[in-house]
Write a structure and sequence with these properties.
Layout: E1 9-16, E2 25-28, E3 41-44, E4 48-56, E5 61-65, E6 72-77, E7 82-90, E8 93-99, E9 109-112, E10 118-122, E11 125-127, E12 134-140, E13 150-154
Antiparallel strand pairs: 1-2, 1-13, 2-5, 3-4, 3-13, 4-5, 6-7, 6-9, 7-8, 8-12, 9-10, 11-12
């Protein structure tokens, strides 16, 4: 009974989540016993990409969220889907620095740039201070980490 809404994904129960585990990670209830591998993508709710499997044990795994401090992920931002790098700031938060001439507004979607684009978040604050060459974009995961009970794992095709 582990099939998720998408046929190519497995459903997993979140055993532990922030703030019980540090640095934007989750502990889930499946591992090698279900064919998980390091690098498998992790999704929350309908289709939000939130992280990757980082450690695989026999019957459990550790998921590192993209929002972990210092994590970097390639994303597409704005209506023209400009490729940039988002940096995790912890607690589900991210930061992006882009040249000021790129039109980004609050509410623009930010998509993970790997494979088929999936939502990582929505620009919540765009700081375009005078005299600076860059705009600073702040956003967060669209799910509440402390209320996350299930995730979906898309196994790699390695």
């Amino acid at each position: 009974g582990r099939k998720a809404e998408h046929d190519d994904r497995l459903l997993s129960v979140v055993l532990s989540r922030p703030p019980r585990v540090p640095y934007d990670s989750l502990i889930i209830d499946i591992g090698e016993d279900h064919g998980l591998q390091m690098g498998d993508m992790v999704y929350a709710e309908m289709d939000y990409s939130i992280g990757r499997v980082e450690v695989v044990n026999s019957k459990s795994s550790v998921v590192k969220l993209f929002s972990a401090p210092g994590e970097k992920i390639d994303v597409l931002v704005g209506s023209s889907t400009i490729p940039v790098v988002a940096e995790g700031r912890g607690a589900g938060n991210f930061y992006i620095k882009v040249p000021k001439n790129i039109p980004i507004v609050e509410g623009d979607q930010i998509l993970v740039a790997a494979g088929r684009p999936v939502i990582l978040g929505t620009a919540e604050h765009v700081d375009t201070s005078e005299g600076e060459a860059f705009s600073h974009i702040y956003f967060k995961l669209p799910v509440k980490l402390n209320a996350l009970h299930y995730v979906q794992i898309k196994k790699s095709t390695r």
